[in-house]
Amino acid sequence: MADVKPTASAVKANTTVQHQKSSNSISWIAPLSCVILGYIIWRFVLGSPSNFTQPDTTSFFWPQHKGLKPTAGFAKMYEGGIIVPILIGCFLTVLTFVIERFLTVKRAAGAGNIGEFIRKIQYHLANKEIDKAIAECDKQQGSVGNVMKSGLRTYKEMITNTELSTDQKVMNIQKSVEETTALELPMLEKNLVFLSTIASVATLLGLLGTVLGMIKSFSALGDEGGGEAAKELSKGISEALFNTALGIGTSAIAIIFYNMFTTKIDSVTHGIDESGFTLTQSFAANYK
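The chain above was modelled as a monomer; its predicted structure follows.
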């Protein structure tokens, strides 16, 4: 009996996009560096011996300076305690990631209005001018443009393909768009977790610093007693509240910018989704 060889079916080899693990060293270097910088500001700027009438020269890590000079009002934050440098570090971390996310999101948004860009692509596709549509993507230079350009290249290949059905061609275009989207979206959302985390933690750290300061103040009141102790209590409470102010202020800034970035990212994501829909619908309508 003659051997029967299986019929080889024409299968298009789809190139899979390799997800490269991009270095994200800033995610651990920045917070650590900011906390260290926060301590330096607290210890050597706010806690400079020149700001106090009775500086402590015996301790290095946490000198117990006393007698704040009238000209050093801002240095009152130093007496808020050891939580203050952590809060300053949180604030600097927020600023770092706000700048980093702002540059990234701005680059991802590209040039011009996303809606206008998609309308231009739709116009070129309706006129079957694929090369002009690709040229528009080069001008856009954003995540939407990158996704659209990847889909348009597959779109152009599928026009001349005679082996696949229309549905298979549309699926290939959609797959190309999805693969490029899978590379673009993580870059947009990266490091936002720091803003959302600090937005919650900063307030708690501020309250912790305030509670520790209040405990210290009331303890001094119990030990000393008298009118002088009441004066020191009022002073201690005022110093402790610096923790609350720093925590709430840092949290507010983190929340504002987090919401701002997520709104902008949602706009880019919507543009990417609309890009994929535009390509598949256009191909299905023009190349049945």
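DSSP finds eight helices and two strands in the chain.
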